[in-house]
Model the fold of this input.
Amino acid sequence: MSSLPIRVLLADDHAVVRAGIRQILDHAPDIQVIAEAGNGEVAQALIEKHLPDVAVLDIQMPKLSGIEVTRWVRAHQRAVGVLILTAYDDDPYVFAVLQAGANGYVLKTALPAEIIQAVRDVNAGKSVLDPAIVQKVMAHISGGQTQAPVEQLTEREMEVLTLVGRGYTNKAIGIQLSISDRTVQGHLAKIFNKLQAASRTEAVMRAVSLGWLPPDLGTPIHTQS
Done:
């Protein structure tokens, strides 16, 4: 395990809430909050400046939303894990966040220890979902399955999806399978299309629900202990 702390950017437009979250994270010896932002525009600038390991973002913020900041991070291929920490669990927000490429979605009702663990998991390349969000995603997946049959994945596509479920990045998958990043992206595009999924998390969870991946190999789910 690295001795370096997990460098975190914290963005929330409510100063009191932001202070509370920081107090929680400051209790973890392996986490260091290096910058704070009160709106999405500042958050984006600070991500560009500091390249934190994890950006903890609220959804509803002035200037730019957490969803827009997440899209920007992914569009510019910044090596930053994105954890959405919000009070909103409405379906449109949930699926917009997952489609934008966030690594985690945790509600502010989570326990302090759960928030700390979520940051650690996102930093480790895992996907983290609040139990309430899991129910919504699974319901969405189940509904989609009744509408159209799912095309079987090839052996190589299953290898790629399995590594996605283990939290591997595209680059790490390429190294593991001795293929290029572009080839990995091509396989993922086909996987998303076949599974009718809009994100890595949804693809893995759909594969788990189909019995193609074992639950313990699927995208790690953040639950209370």
Q: What stands out?
A: The first strand starts at residue 6 and ends at 11.
